[in-house]
Amino acid sequence: MKSPGKPAPPGQLLRHLPSVDELIPELRREAGGGPSDAALAEAARRAIEGQRQRLRGGQAPEGGPANGPALRDSLRREALHQAGDILRADQRPRLRPLINATGIVLHTNLGRAPLSEAACEALLGVARGYSNLEFDLESGKRGRREGAMEELLCRLTGAEGAVVVNNNAAAVMFAIRLMAEGREVIVSRGELIEIGGSFRIPEIMAQSGARLVEVGATNKTRLEDYESAIGPDTGLLLKAHTSNFRIVGFTEEVPRERLVALGRERGLPVLEDLGSGCLLPVPGLPAEPTVAASVEAGVDLITFSGDKLLGGPQAGIAVGRAGWVQKLKKHPMMRILRPGKLTLAALEATLRAYLDPGTAAGALPALRMLAEAPESVGRRVRALLDALGPELRGKLDAREVETTGKVGGGALPLAELPSRAVALAPGGLSPDETEERLRRNDPPVIARIHEDRVLLDLRCVREDELPLLARALRALAGA
Questions:
Q1: pTM of the entire structure?
Q2: Which range (113-122, 217-226, 297-306, 422-431) has the least confidence?
Q3: What architecture is domain 99-106+370-477?
Q4: Looking at residues 281-301, what average pLDDT do you find?
Q5: Half-sphere exposure of 342 (CA within 13 A, CB side)
Q6: Which fold has domain 115-363?
Q7: With 0-12 CB in 10 A as exposed, 13-18 as middle and 19+ as buried, what is 38?
């Protein structure tokens, strides 16, 4: 006879597992009228299977006896709890909004540029129903999906033509393939970049079917380096923005104007990957080459991103001479790389903001955050601290500090954004534990750790997010 405290063998425990039919009525009462019977049954099956695997592995039931008459009830309660967790997880989107308190405006891991209100409204408008994506309302016949976008991009940059694909890596690969497939592409060694997500110019070149020819040194490339490398198999001269790094000190690069002149002299096209896609200078930040300047210099095709300094959705944009743009449009790859209606709606609304340069910085969140003065950020910091009150501020050891943010997204890597933050050092919690608890909040709060304190830089935190952030801090303090 077994002693009362001795665990039963796994085979015996498995016989006490509840059935799916047994769990469904209780799950329905707990979940209300939302999930269907099929969803409830699936959650119950997954919970019971999880129990089965744990018991076979020798793990005792959670919070219950190892054997005896109460075992079945313990397993049933455990299964109900786990099935409820499964239902809630299934209903929660994987892609969730969060509060960016890192001070990095174009944070790649957090989705880069937030969209403007106009872009969100445009996106929602076409998402809810049908649209004239490829329908000409004037003629009643099939239209061009890129028509409005091309008109706006040409007006804003001075280019003869424009085309939009799904991201800038695609735009670069597409352009190289079109302009130099099977031929050589000459590029400076100092511009053989790698940016986030393993985007490497040499690998993009290989995928495009072209052959890379490196010229110059890492820190210095001269015009004669390009001249001496040009041969009968040369198909393209490429200039690439260094994006997320800078070479400083003893350096030299060939201006785009001189590269264009060399291309004209030798009958070679010039492609420039601008990366971030700056349409307007951002006040207070280092000068960044604009798309219009590259167009004016005569570059044949210029590629750039939609979700970095442009402040719009993820997209790859190519502008330049009409002949090359027309070839891109007619290429079979265009159908593979073309963006959908949601991207086009958000991008068009973003570009329309630039039609009035005087208000664009205020209309586009990314530009507004980049240009915001630290004193303005400090007002939000003090409002948050006031909302907490003296007792909670004491528990969290919360105080205002000066800090420095970043542009992010591979743009302006040397630029610093003087800012203000709330520094936290709650008693009994390490900085790592504090950061984790904030990250697991709903909504998640993404902070950074500096000198053994957790910093909440409020540059990227909206006014309407302050109550949510205050609630997260109250939960952190156990209030």
A1: 0.87
A2: 217-226
A3: Alpha-Beta Complex (3.90)
A4: 91
A5: 8
A6: Aspartate Aminotransferase; domain 2 (3.40.640)
A7: exposed
What is the residue-wise DSSP string for 174-240?
A: HHHHHHHTTSEEEEEGGG--EETTTEEHHHHHHHHT-EEEEES-SSB--HHHHHHH--TTEEEEEEE
Using the CB atoms, write b or e for 201-218: b if 16+ within 10 Å: beebbeebebbbbbbbee
First to last CA, the chain: 51
Name every residue whose Cβ is closer than 8 Å to that of residue 12 and which is 6 or more positions away in sequence: 67
Q: What is the distance between the alpha carbons of residues 328 and 335, in angstroms, rounded to a whole number?
A: 10
pLDDT of residue 2: 44
Tell me: the pLDDT tens digits for 141-155?
998 888 889 999 999
CA distance 471 to 325: 51
Could you tell me which residue, 29 or 430, shows the higher pLDDT? 430
Six-digit token string for 454: 């957790």
Which residues have CB under 8 Å from 74's CB, separation 6+?
Answer: 61, 62, 63, 64, 65
CB 158 within 8 A of CB 320: no
Q: How far is CA 467 from the centre of its chain?
A: 24
CA distance 206 to 468: 47
* Domain residue extents for the chain: 10-91, 99-106+370-477, 115-363
Q: What is the DSSP letter of 141?
A: S
Q: Is the predicted pLDDT of residue 198 greater than 70, yes or no?
A: no
CA distance linking residue 10 with residue 77, whole number of Å: 19
pLDDT in tens, 424-475: 999 999 999 999 999 999 999 999 999 999 999 999 999 999 999 999 999 9
pLDDT at 1 (0 to 100): 38
From CA 365, how far away is CA 255, in angstroms rounded? 32
Mean pLDDT, range 178-197, rounded to an integer: 83
Q: How far apart are CA 241 and CA 275, in angstroms?
A: 6
Rounded to whole angstroms, the Cα distance separating 249 from 431 reads 37
What is the mean pLDDT of the segment spanning 7-25?
80
Residue pair 177/209 in contact by the 8 Å Cβ criterion: yes
